[in-house]
Every structure is written in structure tokens, then in C-alpha cells.
Amino acid sequence: MTRHASPDGFPLARWVSVERLPQGRGAVTVEASPAECAALAADFGIPGIRDLVGRFAIEGPTSRLTVTGTVEALVTQVCTVSLEPFEAPVREPVEVVFTDTDQLAGTDAEDADIPDPLVGGRIDFGALTAEFLALGLDPYPRKPGITFEPVVAGDESGPFDKLRRIRDGEA
């Protein structure tokens, strides 16, 4: 897969220093450019993404920030039944905790919900937007109005029907 990337190495990067956020509360909005949407679509292996926006609210001390919000976009995917491309909205809720320390160091915390780390006192809200957009994509997209009709074996003759009748002594 070809990687289309910003200088930070990701198709969509928006680094925010947590020290610059108002103490205890803040808000960040990420709006992807058409080029960033095209790069993400290529990375995700889908025909298109447009109008990608991540809206985030940040609460808590800089040592443990809670980020909540939504990621929304209009995506073009290929129907798994008809193989036709179609557009569909994606709206994915976001709730992530970031911390600047490993609070579970030295513990047996395999099943614990471990907070995401702050990287150099910063959060990449672009990567967060892309991650939750990916989570919101339907892995088996189906165009509205298209239904899957399974093939049922019945009395219809097929290419092996004559052989079946010979085998069963009907011919």
C-alpha cells in the first residue's frame, strides 16, 4: 500500500501541545483538506472521503486528559453485494483518555483500559480523527436498498443437473 503522508508521516496530522490548552478545559476542531481526505481514502482502500471533521472537547489536568467528541465524514465505499460505489455518512463518537505517565507500570494490567500516552506533551488530533473514522467504516458496506439473496438449490437445472440425474438413476 502506498503511504501518502504529511511531513509528520501521517496522512492527517494536527499536533496540539497540551500545555497550550486552557487549564482543565479546551476544544479542538480538525477539518481535513481535500488532499488529506484523498490520502486517507487511499490508505483505507476506499474510493473517497470528503467533509471530514473531528470535533473534540478536552477536560482534566494535563497529567490525565479526557478527550470526547465526534468524527464525521461522507465516505464512498463499494457495496459488498452489488460492487457499486455509494456514498454514506459516518458519525463516530470519541472518548479517549491520555496520560503523561504510565500509571500501570509494574502491575498485571493486561485486561485494564490503559490510557493513551501523551507524546512529548502533545496529542495528534489528526491521527485521532483518522483512527475514529476508520473505526466508523462499515467493514461490509451495503448500498441502501440492496439486499443479499442467497442462491437456493432447487429444481432448476444447472450445468451438472444431467450428471446428478445419471448418478441418482433418474436418466
Which sequence of strands runs across the widest sheet?
Answer: 2-3-4-5-6
Measured distance between first and last alpha carbons: 54 Å
- Alpha plus pi helix count: 3
Largest sheet: 5 strands, mixed
Mean pLDDT: 83
Shape: elongated
Summarize the helix and strand pattern as letters.
EEHEEEEEHH
Write down how many β-strands occur, each being a DSSP E stretch of 2 or more residues: 7
What would a concise description of this structure say?
The chain is 18% helix and 35% strand.
What key phrases describe this protein's structure?
single chain; 171 residues; alpha+beta; 5-stranded mixed β-sheet; two-stranded antiparallel ribbon
Explain what this protein looks like in three dimensions.
- The protein is an alpha+beta fold and 171 residues long.
- It is 18% helix and 35% strand.
- The chain is built from three helices and seven strands; from the N terminus they run ββαβββββαα.
- The strands form two sheets. It has a five-stranded mixed beta sheet with strand order 2-3-4-5-6, covered by helices on one side. The protein has a two-stranded antiparallel sheet with strand order 1-7.
- Strand 3 and strand 4 form a beta hairpin.
- The longest helix has 12 residues.
- The N and C termini lie far apart (54 Å).
- The N terminus is likely disordered.
Helices, strands, pairings?
Blueprint: E1 15-17, E2 24-31, H1 34-44, E3 48-60, E4 64-78, E5 85-99, E6 116-117, E7 122-124, H2 125-136, H3 161-167
